[in-house]
TrEMBL record:
<feature type="active site" description="Nucleophile">
    <location>
        <position position="154"/>
    </location>
</feature>
<protein>
    <recommendedName>
        <fullName>Homoserine O-succinyltransferase</fullName>
        <ecNumber>2.3.1.46</ecNumber>
    </recommendedName>
</protein>
<comment type="similarity">
    <text>Belongs to the AB hydrolase superfamily. MetX family.</text>
</comment>
<feature type="binding site">
    <location>
        <position position="353"/>
    </location>
    <ligand>
        <name>substrate</name>
    </ligand>
</feature>
<dbReference type="GO" id="GO:0009092">
    <property type="term" value="P:homoserine metabolic process"/>
</dbReference>
<feature type="active site">
    <location>
        <position position="319"/>
    </location>
</feature>
<keyword id="KW-0963">Cytoplasm</keyword>
<keyword id="KW-0012">Acyltransferase</keyword>
<dbReference type="InterPro" id="IPR000073">
    <property type="entry name" value="AB_hydrolase_1"/>
</dbReference>
<dbReference type="GO" id="GO:0005737">
    <property type="term" value="C:cytoplasm"/>
</dbReference>
<keyword id="KW-0486">Methionine biosynthesis</keyword>
<dbReference type="InterPro" id="IPR029058">
    <property type="entry name" value="AB_hydrolase_fold"/>
</dbReference>
<comment type="pathway">
    <text>Amino-acid biosynthesis; L-methionine biosynthesis via de novo pathway; O-succinyl-L-homoserine from L-homoserine: step 1/1.</text>
</comment>
<feature type="domain" description="AB hydrolase-1">
    <location>
        <begin position="48"/>
        <end position="342"/>
    </location>
</feature>
<dbReference type="GO" id="GO:0009086">
    <property type="term" value="P:methionine biosynthetic process"/>
</dbReference>
<dbReference type="InterPro" id="IPR008220">
    <property type="entry name" value="HAT_MetX-like"/>
</dbReference>
<comment type="function">
    <text>Transfers a succinyl group from succinyl-CoA to L-homoserine, forming succinyl-L-homoserine.</text>
</comment>
Length: 379
């Protein structure tokens, strides 16, 4: 844990919503809870609020640490805190766990009030649009009529983009990092293989494994291993592991021989202990479904016609899963609509995971952008 400039001890909060949420899939959540954390202080006119949208396996614990778990540090702690690029001495930052998640917000492991049992496979499909709607309701509850900025990486970036289209008057700046206007066919294929690892696990039981007292750990493990490969670049894997052998020689077996195998299995095993399989399925489908241009005859220019925010779009040179070309597609559509756009392609060796890493050029860029935003309400 980095003691210097840490936000320090944080705690989660809960917001209860009793008005039904009609999901784009046709499903309805009659009531639901969102778990969230806040950092910093909301200023008098509530103009300094920033929403952080999380990616596939993310959650509300964005920065700081818990009093009873000091090693449980927020997933973007290197970005958010006093004096950090997103400075909590200036901004009021909100992180939340999306609906369908497994970190406290209503999801498949939650009790369905109509049955008294976990939702399980009966939890409705949720989309990026549904998440943004629920986030807007949370903002209403907090009395925030307009965000200074909404920021997210990967799937979180998609949510930030959706905000600009769905609620153009409620966000002044959008920062979409390592994101895309929609997944490529290759990305959908990776997600489908990962889902099938879970769906075909004998312990899955059609999504109702809670009643059987089991977890489809084998499927989750394989899904995470596959996903982790796609988040890293070849350079990172080569530099970190190469062809190193655990024993220094071939043992001619199907057990772990190479260090990369050991690493992937460790990541898979760890993931299977804390992430819910149904949530993983829902999150990857939300990724697949996001395609704002689809309702405009595949014209991304028309999809962004309602947007009014200023934008910072960031990509990374070795990110082959959300390649820079996809970010440039976003930039072109925004420029077509005569919106104010800044774009940066950061040279990085870390692949898609670059948006989570401490990188001087990247962090300086984000810091400068937020300094400019702060001048809007401190001048």
């Amino acid at each position: 844990m980095e003691a210097t400039h840490s936000i320090g001890i944080v705690s989660a909060q809960r917001a209860q919503f009793n008005s039904p949420l009609a999901c784009k899939s046709g499903g309805i959540l009659p009531e639901y809870e969102l778990v969230y954390e806040t950092y910093g202080s909301l200023n008098r006119d509530k103009s300094n609020a920033v929403l952080v949208c999380h990616a596939l396996s993310g959650h509300h614990h964005v920065a700081g640490y818990y009093a009873d778990a000091p090693k449980n540090i927020g997933w973007w702690d290197n970005m958010i805190g006093p004096g950090k690029p997103l400075d909590t001495d200036r901004f009021f930052v909100i992180g939340l766990n999306n609906l369908g998640g497994c970190h406290g917000s209503t999801g498949p492991i939650s009790i369905n009030p109509e049955t008294g049992k976990p939702y399980g496979a009966g939890f409705p499909f949720v989309t990026v649009e549904d998440w943004v709607e629920s986030q807007a309701r949370l903002a209403d509850k907090l009395g925030i009529t307009q965000f200074a900025a909404i920021i997210g990486g990967s799937l979180g970036g998609m949510q930030a983009l959706q905000w600009s289209m769905a609620y153009p008057g409620r966000v002044r700046h959008v920062l979409a990092i390592a994101s895309a206007p929609r997944l490529t066919a290759q990305n959908i294929a990776f997600n489908d293989v990962a889902r099938n690892a879970i769906l075909t696990d004998p312990d899955f039981h059609g999504g109702n494994y809670y009643a059987h007292g089991v977890v489809p750990a084998r499927g989750l493990r394989l899904a995470r291993m596959l996903g982790h490969i796609t988040y890293l670049s070849n350079d990172v894997m080569a530099d970190k592991f190469g062809r190193m052998l655990r024993s220094g020689k071939y043992i001619y077996s199907y057990d772990i021989e190479f260090e990369i195998e050991s690493y992937l299995r460790y990541q898979g095993d760890k993931f299977a202990t804390y992430f819910d399989a149904n949530s993983y399925l829902l999150m990857t489908k939300a990724l697949d479904y996001f395609d704002p241009a689809r309702e405009f005859d595949d014209d991304l220019n028309k999809a962004f016609a309602t947007a009014r925010a200023n934008f910072l779009i960031v990509s990374f040179s070795t990110d082959w899963r959300f390649a820079p070309e996809r970010s440039r597609d976003i930039v072109k559509a925004l420029l077509h609509n005569q919106l104010k756009v800044s774009y940066a392609e950061i040279t990085s060796t870390h692949g898609h995971d670059s948006f989570l890493m401490r990188h001087a050029h990247y962090h300086d860029l984000i810091r400068t952008y937020f300094n400019n935003i702060a001048s809007e309400f401190t001048a």
